[in-house]
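Team,

Forwarding the record for the chain on the shared tracking sheet. I've put the sequence and predicted structure together so nobody has to dig through attachments.
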Amino acid sequence: MASGGRKERREAKLRDIMQDAQGNVIYTGELWRISEDDEAGGPGRRAMLIAGLALLMVIVIGSGFIDAKNATGAFYVVLTVIGEVSALFGLAWNAVKVLLPGSGVRTYELQQASGRIPAACRLLMIFALTGLALSVLYLVLNGAGGDMADGIAYLMLKFASAAIAGWYRRLFKSTAWEKVS
């Protein structure tokens, strides 16, 4: 069943790609861009999506530089950080594909990203909240090791990354797209 879906996506992608007389490959399908309507978020929607992605990257990666005992004291906390960074990478990969092209986004890229970006945000939220809960558990069982300020800062960053990932998910899902050509 999954291979059939993959085959259909590949065929849909290839239907829009043609070769001209000189042998150059050209895309003949529809291009999309974020709608400029005020109802759909206005002209600042693209900038908000890019800024939100940058903020998420700073928070998730920045939390790894905090020298908190509850961040590195147990393998189960470190595993959630690895999952969070992996989800962030998937989110960034797909978001860059649809947010950076100024001339428009191809239909198949937008269709893929429309499902993957909210899923990556959901995974990021799950890993951040799980890491938050496990860090609190570690603090309760083992103590902060004399560095309570770093531990609290780490917990705040975990909560912030989960909250911003949820906001980003809702923002992307509510973004309206319009045809360029």
